[in-house]
Amino acid sequence: MYSGGGERVAIKEAMHLRKRGHQVEVFSPMIRWDRCFPELLRLVKPRRIIPPFPLPFPFREASALIASASVPVFLRPLKNFDVLLCHSQPSMWIGFMVSKLYGLPYVGYLHQLTTFIHRRPEAAGNWTTKADFLLMDGLLGVFGRALARHLDHLCHVSASKLLFNSKYTTQCFQRAYGVEGDVCYPASDLNPHQIDASLLRARGHNACPTLITSGRHYPWKRIDLAIRLLSFLPDKPRLIVTGEYTSHTPALRRVTEDLKVADRVTFTGFTSDETLTRLYSMSDVYVQTSIQEPFGLSPLEAQSFGVPAVVWGDGGVRETVLDGRTGFHAQPYDLHDFARKVSLILDNGEIHESMSHEAQEWSSRFTWERHTDTVERALCAAC
After folding, report:
1. Fold of 192-363
2. Which of 51, 291, 329, 369 can pair with 323 through a Cys bridge, CB separation 3.0 to 4.6 Å?
3. Backbone phi and psi for residue 163, each to the nearest 5 degrees, phi listed first
4. Quick one: which of 312, 344, 318 has its CA closest to 331?
5. CA–CA distance, 320 with 237 (Å, rounded to integer)
6. Which fold has domain 5-187+367-382?
7. What is the value of pTM for the model shown?
8. C-beta of residue 117 within 8 angstroms of C-beta of residue 145
9. Which residues contact 39 (CB under 8 A, 6 or more apart)?
10. CATH topology match: 5-187+367-382 vs 192-363
11. C-alpha–C-alpha distance, residues 325 and 195, integer Å
């Protein structure tokens, strides 16, 4: 339904497994060809689990998710495969149903605990911004979160194998359901070797330092904190905010106006990989202010371009940003400490250069080849 990190992982897994000679088909309850990595979708050619609902149809996305997970007749095409690789919910429940109906094994690749059941902390902000999500959240309130948690637990403990996108996510599932599995880090697709070397030489010598943050414009990403950060920084840096516009974007623009920093914040909208490559290469520091991010691909992308990253000292980003070496972990959720650590990088050329070199070396360890090796072993063991 949107260009998110979880969607990209599923798409890239299909592409790399096909390169290794496996026959791979991608299924999804809902496919928005115009919103979810259009160029990649044309290559992968995913299929809908259920037929598209006619227009106009209320709550089309929520209805598609519910129908795909509750109407067994739609799952018949899945019986012709050897194994299913299920990315979080509702895919895990679909895998459980197919396993019971047709005896197929399924492997789970888990990005985070099911948000409808396991709420993020209050500091993460409201996540039910879409009407479809509000509907599904309301249905859980009617039919019972205890039952939903039981079913969520059932389909996770019944999987042949579980893979997690970070150690942090692994620990979350261990505490919630007592399950074990292997960590399988995603990788960055962006190629820093494609950039103009002159851009890198100019970085760090700009009259106005440049910060960048990347992510979907949803409240729980807390992009508003990255904007508020500007008020704590004496160098008056500018901030680039990438990501497709959503209904939450106007609220972010209002924050820039209220703080009188609108002239220093650029909203790019959805960017191609080529444009994102150029933006990273021009930036001095990457900042990520989302709360308890399970993995966080964007800091890893930024580091691959030698951009040090400052993140909260929570969630999966503690594993992808090395504190004091490729960036800093700020004290959750202290903007003063966050600003202090951004300033340390901006104001000290030696620190910036050292972190930049180590960030590139560190990020190069996260590859799709390693990722696919782990996925392939899990799938073969399940068959």
Report:
1. Rossmann fold (3.40.50)
2. 329
3. -120, 145
4. 312
5. 25
6. Rossmann fold (3.40.50)
7. 0.90
8. yes
9. none
10. yes
11. 24
What residue spans define the domains of the chain? 5-187+367-382, 192-363
State yes or no: pLDDT of 124 exceeds 70: no
Secondary structure class of 382 (helix, strand, coil): helix
Residue 200, exposed/middle/buried by CB under 10 A (0-12, 13-18, 19+)? middle
Q: What angle do CA 32, 36, 39 make, to 5 degrees?
A: 110
- Count other Cβ atoms within 10 Å, centred on residue 221: 24
Q: Write out the two tokens for 238.
A: 């500018």
d(CA 89, CA 68): 11
Cα dihedral: 75, 80, 82, 87 (round 10): -30
- Please write the tens of the pLDDT for every residue from 162-213: 999 999 999 999 999 999 999 999 998 887 765 555 455 455 555 689 999 9
Identity of the residue numbered 116: F
pLDDT at 112 > cutoff 80: yes
Q: Are the beta carbons of 98 and 106 closer than 8 angstroms?
A: yes
Please count the residues of the chain. 383
